[in-house]
Amino acid sequence: MAVSAQKSKLLQIQELSMTYFPATGNPVHALDDVSLEVRAKEVLGILGESGCGKSTLATAVLRLLPANCKHQHGQILFRDHDLLTLSESEINRIRGREIALVAQDPALSLNPVMTVGNQIAEVLQPHVPLQSKQRQERVRALLGEMGFDQPSEIYVAYPHQLSGGQRQRVVIAQAVACQPSLIIADEPTSKLDPPLRADVIALLSRIHKQFGMAILLISHDPTLFIGFADRVATMYAGRIVETGNCKEIFARPLHPYTQALVRLAKSAATDSIKAKSHFPFIEGDAADLTVKGPGCRFEPRCAERMEICTCNVPPDFSPEIERSVSCFKYAE
Amino acid sequence: MPSSLTTDVSSSNPLLRVKALCKHYVRGHVWKKRVSIQAINQVNFEIAAGHTLALVGTSGSGKSTVARCITRLERPETGHIWIEGTDIARLGSRELSPFRRAIQMIFQDAITSMNPRFSAAEVIEEPLLIQGRSRAERREIAEALIQDVALSPGWLDRSVMEFSGGQRQRLAIARALTLQPRLLVLDEALSGLDLSTQAQIANLLLDLQSKRCLTYLLISHEMGLVARMADTVAVMANGQIVESGDLEQVLTDPQHMETKNLLASVKVTELKLAAGAPS
For strand B215-220 and strand B52-56, is the pairing parallel, antiparallel, or unpaired? Predict the structure, then answer.
């Protein structure tokens, strides 16, 4: 690989496997040999249904997983340092400063008894040396950039006094505060209604242009990525099954699972709908992460299954440049 | 002006008719000035038996307050709620109990509407227990219902925590059906689910509707869902119904700004999909 391409890699996840060991029941293999790279300044989308390991991946990068989630093997390299081997104080210097997280539910990620201004200032405090007056000024400026008309009023408001969309903008302000090089947005719009969803994506897109940080955007809704993400990775049952350029993934999805997801998203378009007609869906149940079978994880739900799919895990094939798909249909 | 709008349902005998419904909440506490917030104001609509009315609008427009008044979880200040000819808006808790059976609600988040220590059987049987049915009878009904929502009867003794999000929503539907209601209020019951799971649950609801002649009040902000499930649509903004009519008419010829905005957000998605994915 060319040296310049090597340099632009910001985050590299290599063959990462993570398993939850619940107090009762079988171990859950949430991540299974996940390899992924986020390049500097790019927007990478991760697409997948709930329970496929998307959020585990997001929290694993910041080492915020619960104690019963054990690292099996693999590395998470951030600027060539393995985040999994750093000490607690070293990783604390990265959290918020270099990598920030926008969690799914802003109502849960904000402290209910603290004004939102102070909560944003709290992120700045350990990383940026500023007098408290200057810090307040910085937070107000930041709130202004997030599209609030009256930053001073928002500064002294408590989370419960804000609407869902406003809270999400506050959480994004927290993430942007230290101008990190990577923002991980885990389903940032799933709790919002469609007009607000568009607003939040527009805000993220503006921040991306303004500050030039990389964004790892996680969602189950393919429409969120179109026009925003540079590349998209599809995840199924703890594995990355397809990666590629966003436009190409949606124009010509290769993996049967990505194909099914894109078909579903298209079927939700209102002008093609007949009233009281059934919705198309993907046959079968979501994969059980406690069972690790010998074959492809999607095989039980796949319409194009072949004999080889039941007994072998498909490796990554690369039918085109910048495209990889883990399906035997594309075996050379 | 908006109060004169009524939903255009051809049937002369609606299952549910709501007229001039108002509800306000009082905010504030001991130290602060009390503020009254008008959550819904002069809401009128009706739903014919076996039909679906979709109540759409952005968050905070008062959709859920309407749902909570119709299920009488809240007591509206003024207005009428007729269920098959009886006004339940002012009834006390004892007179309400036969109507509680007729109207059931399914919430957005299935897990917070269930006792996490219950098994699936306990969840489904609870309404029957309240009605004083025998143990054998309860079990029989639960076994039939869990199959109606396409889950296995062998799972009845599992804890609700062992079910996935979509399966829990199926349990919530089974529980709502135990008392053979005539009206189901679906308060964002399909939001927050994956596209595929959402489609499966929506199909189940459509099948149940035709099989059992159920009437739905569908509360949603997903226009794609509304377009497939509803017969009539009412659009809410700031506690009032600003536009209502047949599904076709509202989708193709929206009048009010709010409706246009809601449809625009869907259209943007469609355009994006069309641009990103030529078929």
Answer: parallel
